[in-house]
Design a protein that fits this description.
actin binding, actin-binding, mainly alpha, Troponin_sf, 151 residues, single chain, muscle protein, Troponin I4b, tandem duplicate 2
């Protein structure tokens, strides 16, 4: 199969060349005719070279652009930036409506679903006159009453 393909390509090339380039008839031409023919062939060669150069430059430019775009895509896949989020004030009912759509018709009371926690009250010492506290600590309280009763 490969040999057949090679043979077909070769035949196709030969037929294309025969169509594009007519065979040269050099016999019987004078020196001036040969020089004119050479100039004409050089002009055709120059045109073909210019087209080839232009197409090569275009291909190189496209390849470079493809490489740059591929690099950009690779870089973007590696770094995903999070957008800055804004705070939005929204009620719980509006949030549920937005998330669940029209399925929720009644308002949900979140406070009713919370557990109640009893706080232990801290033992607060009564702030009283510091002199009474000092007398009670010293054990002199009873003697003061006796002293006051004696007067």
């Amino acid at each position: 199969m490969l040999e057949d393909e090679k043979e077909q390509k070769k035949l196709k090339r030969e037929t294309t060349l025969r169509e594009r380039v007519p065979p040269l008839q050099l016999s019987g031409l004078s020196l001036q005719d040969l020089q004119a023919l050479c100039k004409e062939l050089h002009q055709k060669i120059d045109v073909v070279d210019e087209e080839r150069y232009d197409s090569e430059v275009k291909v190189a430019k496209n390849n470079k652009e493809i490489e740059n775009l591929s690099q950009k895509v690779f870089d973007l896949k590696g770094k995903m930036k999070r957008p800055a989020l804004k705070r939005v004030k929204i009620s719980a009912d509006a949030m549920l409506g937005a998330l669940l759509g029209s399925k929720v018709k009644e308002s949900v009371d979140f406070k009713a679903n919370l557990k109640t926690v009893k706080k232990e009250e801290e033992k607060k010492e009564e702030v009283t006159d510091w002199r009474k506290n000092v007398e009670a600590m010293s054990g002199m309280e009873g003697r003061k009453k006796l002293f006051d009763a004696g007067q």
